[in-house]
Amino acid sequence: MVYRPDYFGPPDLRAQWELIEEYPLGLMALAVDGRPAAVHVPFVLDRHAWPYGRLRGHLSRGNPICAELANNVEVVVAFLGPSDYISPDNYATQPHFPTWAYAAVHVTGRPRLLDDVRLVRQLDDLIEDQEKRLAPKPPWSLPRQASPLFEEYFRLIQGFEIPIARIDGVFKLGQNKSAADMRAQARAFRARRTDSADRLADYIERHNNLERQEPGPRPASEDRDGAPGTPADQGE
Questions:
Q1: Quick check: bond before 5 cis, omega within 30?
Q2: pTM for this structure?
Q3: Compositional bias (Basic and acidic residues) at which positions (predicted)?
Q4: For residues 78 and 26, is the Cβ–Cβ distance under 8 A?
Q5: Which domains does the chain have, with CATH numbers?
Q6: pLDDT 10s per residue in the chain (236 long)?
Q7: What DSSP state is assigned to residue 211?
Q8: Judging by DSSP bridges, how do beta strands 112-113 and 44-46 pair with one another?
Q9: If 159 and its partner were Cys, which of 116, 119, 194, 215 is the partner (CB 3.0–4.6 Å)?
């Protein structure tokens, strides 16, 4: 269960699916011998599976978590999308306190083991999804003919699927702030000139129905709030 104040969601199911597909490395957590355990797993999402979709992944058989997957245990898988620190200087108004912007989705379900045929399909789907992101590089794919390397690798892993019983998202993207403050946040993130900050700016704009904010040069007369010619403490 995700703690989520009303103004931070819930995002619709499609938005949650899109985050999982864009950030497929999930943190899967469960109890092993009465103690908490977790592992990072790259997943494939099947949207068509009723009612909320299905995750497919694989683990090293040497991981103690792997032995638990056949025991009808409940697991939680957390997917973290774009995230970054927000400075009080990144708002159009004052005063504010430092905080963090992020989008995340938590999935709950009970894993089921995959047979060899479905494990190969999971590997194919995962590799295909990731390779197409590397275009124009020609995509790499699993060899269709057996090889000692493939056989060795295949013996070391166990495939599994998680029918999604519950999905919870929290998109903390400034929805409790004014439109001017959300636009200022997007501009500030984009001005950092990093891929991760730019993706976070995209999320703020997309999920708050804002037009794209470009950082641009700051006019000499513009104060720290982003209001030209206006004293920074006006209205305080």
A1: no
A2: 0.88
A3: 201-226
A4: yes
A5: 6-178 (2.30.110.10)
A6: 788 888 887 789 999 999 999 999 999 999 999 999 999 999 999 999 989 999 999 999 999 999 999 999 999 999 999 999 999 999 999 999 999 999 999 999 999 999 999 999 999 999 999 999 999 999 999 887 778 888 899 999 999 999 999 999 999 999 999 999 999 999 999 999 999 999 999 999 999 999 999 985 543 333 444 333 333 332 32
A7: P
A8: unpaired
A9: 119
CB atoms within 10 A of CB 72: 9
Residue whose structure tokens are 């001017």: 180
- Residue 233 CA to residue 236 CA, distance in Å, equals 6
Within 10 angstroms of residue 204's Cβ, the number of other Cβ atoms is 25
* Helix (H/G/I), strand (E/B), else coil: 226: coil
162 alpha carbon, distance to own chain's centre: 17
